[in-house]
Amino acid sequence: MHLQYFAATRENPMTEHKTLYAAYAATVEKALLALQTEGVLPADCSFANVAVEPPRDASHGDLATNAAMVLAKQAKTNPRALAESIAEKLDAEPSITSAEIAGPGFINLRLDPAAWLGELAAISDMGEGYGRSTMGEGRTVNVEYVSANPTGPMHMGHCRGAVVGDALASLLEFAGHKVTREYYINDAGGQVDTLARSAHLRYREALGEDIGDIPEGYYPGDYLKPIGEYLARELGDKYKEEPEEEWLPYFRAEAVEQMMALIKSDLALLGIHHDIFASEAALHAAGKPDEAEAWLRAHDLVYDGVLEAPKGKAPPDDWEPVELPLFRSTKFGDDQDRPIRKSDGKWTYFGADLAYHMQKAADADELIDIWGADHAGTVKRIKAAVAALSEGQGNPIPFDVKLVQMVQLMRGGEPVKMSKRSGNFITIADMIEEVGKDVVRFTMLTRKPEAQMEFDFAKVVEASKDNPVFYVQYAHARVKSTLRKAAEAGFAASAEDLAQLGEEEIALIRNAAQFPRIVESAAKAREAHRIAFYLYDLAAELHAFWNLGNDNPQKRFIVEQDAALTGARLFLADAIGQVIRNGLGVLGVDAVDSL
RNA sequence: GACCCCGUAGCUCAGUUGGAUAGAGCAUCAGAUUCCUAAUCUGAGGGCCGCGCGUUCGAAUCGCGCCGGGGUCACCA
């Protein structure tokens, strides 16, 4: 009945303000409701697809709505006829100076300039809160991201997913969700046994033994040396010659803890902090996978069956059919049913993972996973399992897996060579040391995550307009610099004479006023990169306005002989700076005061 | 072979709950510097939105089928 658009009320609980797009969306809704009362629109018609947006071409006016086109079919009339009725109602609004019908049935609205000046004041009043939304209605969203195996420092392969996940989490928070940032520690599989053995090797090394080259099947990186030294200090030679079963659990626990400390410090360099670090081993210990299996078996979603040979290529030499507990993922479009336990009775990754998702679902209204694209093949089975379990247990939960594509590292147009074999790869710490946190974060958000991207060290540090990070930061620095200069000359931002502002300034306000709706549409689409592109546009508009002053001193922010105009322009500059700051804040990028 | 992602200007990319004449940056060409930061800006040219069919008032956007590029196809994690 009510506009979906309005479920997302823009009212800020801290102030009386409603942002401009929200206010006029409400105005349009009011007109539609009136037409419903008059019988022009049917009582049961849905306004869900009605939008109030900026028109594509600024010459069409200030705002446009597609209401007539969306509702014509339901009203059993043609769009232009319905548009007449709607436009008539809107034209009666005092702040709407004209409502014109255009094209297939758009209604273009022109506003009294005071409406835009009012929005400018709202930006200033709401400050850091400008753009925040209550759209999420406090619903809890669990965003799981990074979840790198605790077997070494974070490297480039983890970076994009980390930034994308973190920015998405912030965006959802900004849009009114309660967000839990979660990291799943895979501390129960074979790879952490390998880690423990590798640590034991370094332990022996630290005790003076010549271990020679690191053998195949061990982690070779030097980052394990300090762990070996630490264990040697703590334990002496107690476990030097002992059989593996004597020391493995202890070494594993110690090594995982040290690796997680390393990973957390790497994440901190990126400005990333998780709320929950969930342990797979603890999940096993709590018997969660057993519970899930029991339920799935009772509902015939797990059965004992023979696993098919891998498809599309010759089966491995040692392939032999074996009976395992299989989840019926083929019922959900997967190629084959997937094992939840191995032949030795231990849980597969998938078996534990489905139980893990049920654990997350217990404390959240919605789940989002951020995964690397190399795991794309396992999306169907986990979505199937979560759907089966959550719906079957009476707690259906929206669950989305976002795949993040690979990043190709470049340096001056040439691919950067990395050798994982020797443990020689580019870590996140290396990268941040070279180009800085802000550059890494912003650059990772200048492409949609599901498209592959290149990251060129030479280009991203370039301080020019070709580099979006600097372009946006420069716009903010420019605002700050102007305010500093103005203060020295005895001017200050003032809302007293906003009516002095002309068409060019209002164009800038129009752009800034879009921030709240960009936030909502980005949050709805779960796409933080839209904020980055928006900020680039806003920065471009600010630079363009600035440069009007090159030719015409009367168009500068500071006009010495006109204090009223200067006060109003500074007020505008301050507000634009605020919006840029708010947007960068969502992305986790610092807004610098000078470059 | 199957599944997932991508295909938009010479290049790098935005733009999908279906909307008006498809947008930026780079590169190319023509301009702006006694100026609050020119680390910038103004303007011009440049497009069968990979191809075909369909859905409808309307498709870059949705569906089906192709073509091209990348990824994945363990009892691994």
Major beta-sheet overview: 5 strands, parallel
Uncertain segments: 1-16
What integer is the average pLDDT? 89
Query: How would you write the strand order of the largest sheet?
Result: 7-6-5-11-12
Helical residue percent band:
40-55%
Give the N-to-C terminal Cα separation: 51 Å
Gyration radius (Cα, Å) is 29 Å
The helix count comes to 21
What do these coordinates show?
The strands form four sheets. The protein has a five-stranded parallel β-sheet, sandwiched between helices. Strands 1-2-4-3 form a four-stranded antiparallel β-sheet. Residues 1-16 have low confidence and may be disordered. The protein contains 21 helices and 15 strands. 48% of the residues lie in helices and 12% in strands. It is an alpha/beta fold. It has helices at 4-7, 20-37, 67-75, 79-91, 113-126, 156-174, 190-206, 225-235, 244-269, 280-285, 288-298, 349-361, 379-392, 428-435, 437-444, 457-460, 468-488, 503-512, 515-525, 529-551, 563-587; strands at residues 52-53, 63-65, 96-102, 106-111, 140-144, 178-185, 276-279, 302-306, 323-327, 338-339, 366-372, 399-404, 407-411, 414-415, 453-456. The structure holds one RNA strand of 77 nucleotides.
